[in-house]
């Protein structure tokens, strides 16, 4: 059978990708899954796929890696940002089925401040078709190319710079949209809400449910000074520890790409935490930096088949 025939025959393709996926699980290290928002039924499907492997806590995965023990067939589940539409169902399910899971908590978000990407998306949505003056430059956002070029570069500022660089621009746009009676200031803060501290305090009593650091303000590490980044690591760690009465030993970089992280942040994280995860795709290898661990992101659109294909990775 030719490759083309295999790819067009879904039964054969499914069997073929399962064999390939099993080969990667048997030859290479474990995987750390990265979720943000996820439907509980989809999550259960994913767990079913990995049930035949061993689902271990992030601490277990990191400890085995550090001791140079094999991580083959191991799967660790992590969830970023702590959304209210996701965590309660996941906590109930993982408690009932005895599955360890790690949640990364951006502390300002829990305190009620919208994560920067929500504010950015609201500004972008409300600016469409409007005329705005920014830094004495006039923009007509009814013109598609101008709109996209401007918001792509504003998006990059959020991913690679500190909020000192992008918030003054956000303010100019927000104020003019309010003046033009397009919306109210509060509309820019519309967001998917997180769980609250009471929830985290209650759930953290269960050792299967672990709450770890994801900074205070959810800014890109590369955009912050070393001092400011270190302060955010320590402040978030202390805040979560004060709520959970458990040590916070793992860290997750906001945005998570190597370019969002930069070269200084991992050396700072190393002084404070046992490990750090990224959004770089890959499996765990003994030689990897413990402070730049790869993960495999999964979303609602990841059917069992897509999830199997995503695990065919070194
Ligand atoms: Zn995040």
Walk me through what this model shows.
There is one protein chain. By secondary structure, this protein is of the alpha/beta class. The chain folds into two domains: 25-111 and 194-310, Alpha-Beta Barrel (TIM Barrel); 116-189, no CATH class. The protein is 48% helix and 15% strand. It has 14 helices and ten strands. The strands form two sheets. Strands 1, 2, 3, 4, 7, 8, 9 and 10 form an eight-stranded parallel beta sheet that branches. A two-stranded antiparallel sheet has the order 5-6. Strand 3, helix 5 and strand 4 (101-105) form a beta-alpha-beta unit. It is globular. It starts with a helix and ends with a helix. The mean pLDDT is 94. The protein binds zinc ion. Zinc ion is lined by residues 80-81, 106, 214, 218, 254.
Q: Mind sketching the topology for me?
A:
Blueprint lengths: L2 H6 L1 H18 L3 E5 L4 H11 L3 E2 L2 H9 L7 E7 L6 H11 L3 E5 L1 H4 L5 H12 L3 E4 L2 E4 L3 H17 L2 H17 L17 H7 L5 E5 L12 H19 L5 E3 L5 H4 L3 H8 L2 E7 L11 E5 L6 H7 L4
Parallel strand pairs: 1-3, 1-10, 2-3, 3-4, 4-7, 8-9, 9-10
Antiparallel strand pairs: 5-6
Helix pairs in contact: 7-8, 7-9, 11-13
Zinc ion binds next to loops.
CATH architect. name of the largest domain: Alpha-Beta Barrel
CATH class of the largest domain: Alpha Beta
Note the run of SSEs as H and E: HHEHEHEHEHHEEHHHEHEHHEEH
* Tally of DSSP β-strands: 10
Number of helical stretches of at least 4 residues: 14
Major sheet: size, sense and barrel closure?
8 strands, parallel
Euclidean distance between termini CA atoms:
26 Å
Q: Could you say which overall geometry the principal axes of the C-alpha atoms support? A: globular
Give the rounded overall mean pLDDT: 94
Could you say which structural class the secondary elements and strand pairing correspond to? alpha/beta
Q: CATH H level of the largest domain: which superfamily?
A: Glycoside hydrolase/deacetylase
Please give the domain count: 2
Quote the beta fraction.
Answer: 5-15%
Bound molecules: zinc ion
Q: Could you name the CATH topology of the largest domain?
A: TIM Barrel
Low-confidence stretches: none
Q: What percent of the residues sit in helical stretches (DSSP H or I)?
A: 40-55%
Instruction: Report Rg.
Output: 21 Å
């Amino acid at each position: 059978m030719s490759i083309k025939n295999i790819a067009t025959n879904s039964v054969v393709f499914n069997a073929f990708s399962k064999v390939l996926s099993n080969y990667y699980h048997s030859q290479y290290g474990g995987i750390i899954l990265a979720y943000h928002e996820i439907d509980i039924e989809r999550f259960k499907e994913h767990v079913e796929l990995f049930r035949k492997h061993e689902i271990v806590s992030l601490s277990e995965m990191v400890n085995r890696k550090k001791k140079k023990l094999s991580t083959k067939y191991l799967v660790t589940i992590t969830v970023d940002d702590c959304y209210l539409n996701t965590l309660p169902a996941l906590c109930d399910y993982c408690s009932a089925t005895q599955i360890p899971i790690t949640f990364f908590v951006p502390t300002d978000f829990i305190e009620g401040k919208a994560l920067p990407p929500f504010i950015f998306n609201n500004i972008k949505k409300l600016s469409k078709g409007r005329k705005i003056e920014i830094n004495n430059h006039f923009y007509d956002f009814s013109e598609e190319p101008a709109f996209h070029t401007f918001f792509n570069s504003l998006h990059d500022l959020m991913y690679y710079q500190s909020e000192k660089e992008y918030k003054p621009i956000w303010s100019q746009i927000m104020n003019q949209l309010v003046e033009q009676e397009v919306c109210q200031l509060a509309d820019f803060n519309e967001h998917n809400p997180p769980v609250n501290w009471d929830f985290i305090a209650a759930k953290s009593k269960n050792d299967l449910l672990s709450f770890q650091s994801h900074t205070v303000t959810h800014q890109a590490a590369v955009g912050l000074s070393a001092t400011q980044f270190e302060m955010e690591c320590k402040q978030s760690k202390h805040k979560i520890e004060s709520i959970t009465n458990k040590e916070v030993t793992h860290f997750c970089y906001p945005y998570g790409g190597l370019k969002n992280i930069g070269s200084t942040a991992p050396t700072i994280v190393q002084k404070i935490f046992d490990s750090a995860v990224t959004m770089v795709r890959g499996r765990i290898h003994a030689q990897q930096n413990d402070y730049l661990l790869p993960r495999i992101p999964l979303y609602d659109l990841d059917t069992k088949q897509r999830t199997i294909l995503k695990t065919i990775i070194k």
